[in-house]
Every structure is written in structure tokens, then in C-alpha cells.
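Re: that chain you flagged

S.,

Sorry for the slow reply, it's been a week of failed gels. I finally had a moment to sit down with the sequence you sent. For the record, here it is as I used it:
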Amino acid sequence: MTEEIKIRQTAEEATVAVHAGQQASTVGARYGAERKERKPMVSWAALLHEAVKNPGFIHEAYSRFHSYSIGNQLLALFQCLEQGIQPGPLATFPKWKELGRHVKKGSKALTLCMPLTCKRAKTVKREDGTEQEEPIAFTHFSMRPLWFTLAQTEGKDYQPASFPAWSEEAVLTALKIEREEFQMLDGNTQGYAKKGRKVAVSPVAALPVKTLVHECAHVILGHCDQGDLADTEVIPHDVREVEAEAVALLCCESLGLPGAEYSRGYIQSWGKGQAISERSAQRIFHAADQILRAGTPAAVPPQENESEIP
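Prediction finished late last night. Pasting the C-alpha cells below so you have them in one place:
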């Protein structure tokens, strides 16, 4: 794992020395104290770069941690490899306790990105000119060292969740994307995306599923909002193509579908040696998550926001 990806910890390492009989609330309290000095950070662009340049990592991460967001899957795998931990099912200290297992003494928690729902008051003006305070809710993302793998625990036998089946038709239905008949005469065109959330894939496309995901990514990323992809948009054409193909790479390699090496070459060609920006990396991870989750409607919900997490 590169230095850029490494999660910045507090002044003291966020090592979880789990003692026999230690209460989950105590663990949570110590985490909070350790985080006061400096919040952990991670570069999503560097994480994406490592995933793209290491064939097999994306699929390994998805097969081990598929119930988590794809960014957290990669974070978890890199940390497991760095620390010499056997990758496997993840849960928090209280969740493992609920499942009849306890975390081994001296185990170091993995740090993942966790969504937190926050509330604050907002001053609004009434029709009569008076002001009042109204509560508003928003989501904040925080890096927290709260997760342990199965190999870091002992106790009751645990049966991992089955690997979810993915369907391209489920993706189109869930994301409200319409697949239309391919109408272009250019035999070199594999597929296209249009405004109105419409996509098409050539009947002779070499990699039809990868192409479909690429075109769906254009729709999800908002590349078509101002017209067909041939039109001039705020996001440069080369950036749009890199973003869409990176989404296709993350999704297809996660699912073990063909085309990963083609995607890597495509990204390199359109990227012209330029690094993917932090903002683009965040957009890429988010779009890939949407497509993977939309295609597996029967899968368990994301596990980063377990209700019992302190």
C-alpha cells in the first residue's frame, strides 16, 4: 500500500488492545479520545490508482467484502495485506459480540469510511417576517477504526453471507435507464449514451456488458445532462471517458467479468499520463457503487452504517 493511500492516524496508533471482558462502550470511548487530536484521512485518487495498476485486487476485495462500499472494500483489503491479516468477513466489536464471537486481545481495528447522520438548527424566516429555528439533517463521512475481520475473532462458528447475483436488467430498472436499439452506422462504435437516460450497445460489441456499464456510468455521472456526448460540456471529453471506463473497470473486475485489461488500456490512453483527480475518484467510486448495488437488489444493505456502532 502506497504512502498516499495510508490512513493518517492520531498521534497514538489507533490499535485496539481488546482485553477480556472489555465493554463495547469503553472501546468506543477510547476511539473518540484518540481521534480528537487529528482526523484520519485517505486519498481516494491514490486508492483508485493502486486498484487500477494491480490486476486482481478489485475482484479480491469485492469477493471478501462485497457488503461494503467498493472504496471500503479496497481500503479493507490493503490494510489486511499490510498488517498480514487474513481477509474475510468484517464487523464491529459489538457486532461480533452479538454473533457470539469476541475480538482477540491486541487486535488492530481496520479503518473505514463511515456515513454519519448529523443534525443542526437552521434559521428560517416565516411569511410574517419572524424567524425560527428548524432542524435539518445531513450526512457526514468520517474515517473510523472500528472493524475487525473474522480471523481476528474467536468463538461461535460463523457462516459468511452468500455472494450476491448481479443482473444488468436490474441495474437498468433500478437506475431508471432505458436501453434503446443501437442506431449508429459507425462499425467502430461499441455503444453510446444520450440525454433522457438512454443507452445503446452495438449488437457486435466485443464486450457488451462492459460497454453497457460504461454507458450507464456516463448517465449516472451526469455526462449526458447537456446533450449527447459529442456536445461540448463542462467536463472535458477525456475526463468523461476516463471516469466512465474506470467505473466499468471497478464493476466488471469486481464481478469477474471480462474486459479488465482492455479497460486499463483505455484509461491509460484517454488519461494521457495525467493522474485522476480526487474529485473524479470520488465520483467514480460512487457511480460504481450505484451500479453494483442496483444489480444486486437481494443483497444485504451496506454494512458501514451498522446501527450499533458508537
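What I noticed first: DSSP finds ten helices and eight strands in the chain.

Talk soon,
D.
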